[in-house]
Amino acid sequence: MTEKEKMLSGEFYDTRDSELRTLSNDAKDLMKIYNSLPAENMDLRNQIIRLLFGFCGENVRVNQPIYVDYGCNISLGGGSLINMNCTLLDTGKITIGDNTLVGPDVKIYTAMHPLSARERLYTDESGKTAVRTKTAPVVIGHNVWIGGGAIILPGVSIGDNSVVGAGSVVVKSIPANAVACGNPCTVKKMLDELDE
Q: Is the predicted pLDDT of residue 193 greater than 90, yes or no?
């Protein structure tokens, strides 16, 4: 199994692997180009974001700047918006559904490390110290609104039609049709069909 396959399957992997470094460097180069484009040049922005992300639906908007690890592990559904200054650390898969709004300064993380320093750090066969890393995917449903400054942690799912309040730290999954906020983020109320 390659280090990339380990990474995407949630096993511990070597972040220093040459294939992963190449993928990350390529993403950083595309990200730099994307973030430096004139805001009004939507045609070129759309072309570059489609090269950067693994999947982009129709009529998406990704405001600059955007920050990613690999880009290729991000799927962005049609009609969705990612506002400015968002960080999507896609060592694991990040899936964002259709017509979803991601506010400014939102952070989505998929990487995890052991809590114990003895387990987190290890010495490889060449005598170098490295960090143990594994991933858990983040899945955000359709018609979701993530308020500005929210942080979404590895392994979280957010159900369709839900709202996550600004500044929330989402450590556990949120069901569909919920309004949730806080640190840690908890469900405050459920939306009924008439409220949607």
A: no
